[in-house]
Design brief:
phosphorus-oxygen lyase activity; four-stranded parallel β-sheet; NAD+ nucleosidase activity, cyclic ADP-ribose generating; 38% helix; Rossmann fold; disulfide bond; alpha/beta; two-stranded antiparallel ribbon; 337 residues; EC 3.2.2.6
């Protein structure tokens, strides 16, 4: 189903979706500064993004630490406690979100996933996740698939954790790896906690290959009316012609299972109107779908999603403000250490 963020990269110029090189850029919800979701991939879990002030104050300290580490790769290292996080997410998904999946074995799913942790970090193929996908995949409700580019925050808010729609981050095989990074050390056994490769380092890195595999399966399992949310305020265009949606999802849509495709071009509140339906890259997408034989429609600023956009902006602003005082206290404490 990376918050990359959105730059052209090597290896076929596919825009990254992994945790280390960021799947897609967060859509700004209005007059507040853009906040990027931890360089996420795929679709990020529904969580509160860090306020811009927090990022601004903490990034210099983090950058200094990263420089001192002299990392081999350009991406974040393996997240600490990877196994515990993975198993916890899996158990939560089955117990809380989808009790009908009670027969899924989270331990077996983890064992299949961790096979890539024994491979060279630049030699992990999408097919290396086949067993993991086979054990964790499940049906996606008809008319509930939501594909997207450059609009993570709005997508997760509008999807309501799978209750309204089911984007990739709300299926089991997308949720367990969301916002995480992982890789083996280059010339040794054991995990690399210092850095992991991104598409800038090598094409076949663990996180990007994970999202390629997950994206392909998600597209294959989607049916009925398919929804696509694009950011019409994105400076580089609403529809990246080289990206996960273009390269790994559209080609695997099953025409005999799909009724039609509905495109929503959303524009940031207070932001620029770069592209709308029938314009620029959106027109390229429309022409591609038509050539493939899909029925489609396109709507600018879909009303229901726009309402969610305004609500999310209000909540974001309130929560951002609530961080300021605790943050200043924390920084003062650190300064005295």
């Amino acid at each position: 189903m990376k918050q990359k963020e959105r730059q052209q990269v090597s290896a076929g110029s596919v825009r990254p979706r992994g945790a280390t090189s960021a799947r897609r850029e967060e859509a700004s919800l209005g007059g507040t500064p853009k906040v990027t979701a931890m360089e996420a991939m795929g679709c990020a879990r529904s969580r509160r993004p860090l306020p811009a002030l927090l990022l601004i104050l903490l990034l210099p300290r983090a950058a200094g630490a990263a420089g001192a580490a002299d990392a081999r790769w350009s991406g974040q290292g393996t997240v600490p406690h990877l196994q515990s996080i993975f198993l916890g997410r899996c158990a939560e998904y089955i117990a809380v979100l989808s009790p009908e999946l009670r027969d899924k074995n989270c331990t077996a799913i983890w064992e299949a996933f961790k096979l890539v942790l024994d491979k060279d970090p630049c030699s992990v193929l999408p097919s290396d996740y086949d067993l993991f996908i086979n054990l964790s995949r499940h049906s996606i409700p008809r008319d509930k698939s939501l594909f997207w580019e450059n609009g993570h925050l709005l997508v997760t808010s509008y999807a309501e954790n799978g209750r309204r729609f089911t984007p990739l981050c709300n299926v089991l095989y997308g949720m367990v790896g969301d916002f995480l990074s992982w890789c083996r050390q280059k010339n040794a056994s054991g995990l690399d906690y210092q850095s992991c490769p991104t598409s800038e380092d090598c094409e076949n890195n663990p996180v990007d290959s994970y999202w390629k595999s997950a994206s392909i399966q998600y597209a294959k399992d989607s049916s009925g009316v398919i929804y696509v949310m694009l950011n019409g305020s994105e400076p580089t265009g609403a529809y990246p012609v080289k990206g996960f949606f273009a390269d790994f999802e559209i080609p695997h849509l099953q025409k005999d299972k799909i009724t039609r495709i509905e495109i929503w071009v959303m524009h940031e509140i207070g932001g620029p109107n770069v592209e709308s339906c029938g314009e620029g890259s959106v027109k390229i997408l429309e022409e591609r779908l038509e050539k493939m034989g899909f029925q489609y429609s396109c709507i600018n600023d879909y009303t229901a999603a726009t309402s969610t956009q305004r609500e999310a902006l209000s909540v974001y602003a309130e929560r951002s403000a609530s961080f300021v005082f605790p943050l200043l206290v924390a920084l003062a404490s650190v300064a005295q250490m």
